[in-house]
Structure to design on (458 residues):
């Protein structure tokens, strides 16, 4: 007989908070629950660099997996790549980063000597101490390092400031070996480094971060329609993974703010407490990159379309998204507080595929009667779901902890379990509970998670 568990009654999902939560609350929850710690904290920390703790690493991995699934695995026209972070220095000459990947920097000549991005400041007065700001100069954001034992100009290389160039220089390798015909894309997830003048807002802007980028190669005549397609796709991705539609918007770049290589660009922005801010940019890069690498390397990077008997350099549409920024937006978006019996209840209403843990197995207490059964339940459940076992403190405290971690379901093993071989499953959002035989626990979790996924996807 096919199993069909009755869903929890309370649908659709109800939220209490309707405005974006202040960042302070997210920072302290992230620390408290082990999502994000300050880097090198015992040495006083290193400015604007962060470490992802046990829950953070799971959540960020879920975000990257979700993107990879949507971008690569579910599609027949995108393949993956994992290029090295260190690349030949000519790559960055050709791409224009050595010459042009700069921000205008101004420094206070008064008391504080603070540095600012000139494009974020109006006038010549220091926003911190009121001193006079000096002339703006262009500051290159790439980190320099040296390859090999000799630290001279010939050994100097860069840490990549974007993953995209690893894709462009492999265009021919991938096109030839994957036998993909245009239009097709190459996706990559990996670390990038930018020596930002003013990092901040927690993990929103850091100097080391992870990007999820895809370069989609198409015929020049089709680039506008693919640009539109990838903007809509990108918006759809955030909604699919539960980010509220009313906190998302699309914003076309003005001509002045567009990067030098782009002929059209749009951002997907999220309404943070510090204002609407970019999560992802979709650029029409034209043939800028392939032509530049063709000229610098002397290698032919054109494409021959046999059907049309035509040779051309493909145009490129690029959706470029930050994994860390997306994680911040998802934490902020999921954060909710509601009235509790004694104190307010904090809950992260994360999409079940994004939540760090899907299930928590909680024996009512730690003893010879319950522990062996609870451990057996953990073994069964953890084969299929990311599961945490917790038998410390009172059950109420443990539910609160899981709510704050965004765990969609708690499976509780209590004294009745010994007699009826059943467990209680509790829903994070409504706190409703249902009773399920242990032998059906994974089937029931599948049904319940599917229902939650449906409720939360826009
Ligand atoms: P910004 O204008 O915020 O500096 P950008 O337009 O330079 O960003 P892109 O080069 O378009 O950013 O990079 C694509 C994505 O990579 C961004 O939308 C963002 O999600 C992420 N990203 C870029 N810089 C950072 C950073 N310093 N910290 C965290 N994520 C970043």
């Amino acid at each position: 007989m096919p199993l069909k568990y009755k869903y929890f009654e309370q649908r659709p999902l109800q939220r209490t908070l309707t405005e974006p939560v202040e960042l302070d609350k997210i920072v302290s929850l992230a620390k408290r629950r082990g999502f994000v710690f300050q880097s090198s904290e015992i040495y006083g920390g290193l400015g604007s660099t962060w470490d992802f703790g046990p829950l953070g690493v799971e959540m960020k991995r879920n975000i990257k997996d979700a993107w990879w699934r949507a971008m690569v695995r579910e599609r027949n026209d995108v393949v993956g790549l994992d290029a090295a972070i260190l690349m030949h220095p000519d790559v960055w000459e050709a791409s224009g980063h050595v010459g042009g990947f700069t921000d205008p920097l101004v420094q206070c000549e008064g008391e504080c000597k603070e540095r600012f991005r000139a494009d974020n400041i109006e006038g010549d007065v220091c926003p911190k101490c009121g001193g006079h700001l000096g002339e703006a100069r262009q500051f290159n954001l790439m980190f320099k390092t040296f390859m090999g034992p000799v630290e001279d100009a010939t050994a100097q290389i860069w840490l990549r400031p974007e993953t995209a160039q690893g894709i462009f220089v492999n265009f021919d390798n991938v096109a030839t070996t994957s036998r993909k015909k245009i239009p097709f894309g190459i996706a990559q997830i990996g670390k990038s480094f930018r020596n930002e003048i003013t990092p901040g807002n927690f993990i929103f802007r850091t100097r080391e971060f992870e990007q999820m980028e895809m370069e989609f190669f198409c015929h020049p005549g089709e680039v506008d329609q693919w640009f539109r397609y990838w903007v809509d796709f990108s918006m759809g991705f955030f909604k699919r993974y539960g980010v509220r539609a009313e906190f998302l918007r699309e914003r076309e770049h003005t001509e002045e703010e567009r990067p030098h290589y782009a002929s059209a660009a749009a951002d997907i922005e999220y309404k943070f407490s510090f204002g609407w801010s970019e999560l992802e940019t979709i650029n029409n890069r034209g043939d800028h990159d392939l032509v530049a690498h063709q000229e610098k390397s002397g290698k032919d990077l054109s494409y021959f379309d046999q059907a049309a008997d035509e040779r051309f350099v493909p145009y490129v549409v690029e959706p470029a998204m930050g994994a860390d920024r997306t994680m911040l937006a998802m934490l902020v978006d999921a954060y909710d507080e509601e009235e509790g019996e004694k104190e307010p209840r904090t809950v992260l209403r994360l999409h079940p595929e994004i939540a760090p843990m899907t299930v928590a197995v909680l024996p009512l207490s730690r003893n010879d009667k319950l522990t062996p059964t609870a451990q057996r339940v953990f073994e069964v459940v953890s084969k299929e779901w990311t599961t945490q076992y917790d038998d410390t403190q009172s059950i109420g405290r443990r539910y609160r902890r899981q709510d704050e971690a965004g765990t969609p379901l708690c499976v509780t093993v209590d004294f009745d379990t010994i007699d009826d071989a059943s467990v209680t499953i509790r829903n994070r959002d409504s706190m409703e509970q249902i009773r399920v035989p242990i032998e059906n626990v994974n089937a029931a979790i599948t049904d319940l998670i599917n229902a939650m996924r449906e409720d939360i996807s826009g």
Residues 162, 194, 196, 205-206, 209, 211, 278-281, 320-322, 324-325 surround adenosine-5'-triphosphate (CB under 6 Å). The chain has three domains: 23-92+146-150+153-331, 102-140, 342-457. The first strand starts at residue 36 and ends at 38. Residues 83 and 410 are 40 Å apart (CA to CA).
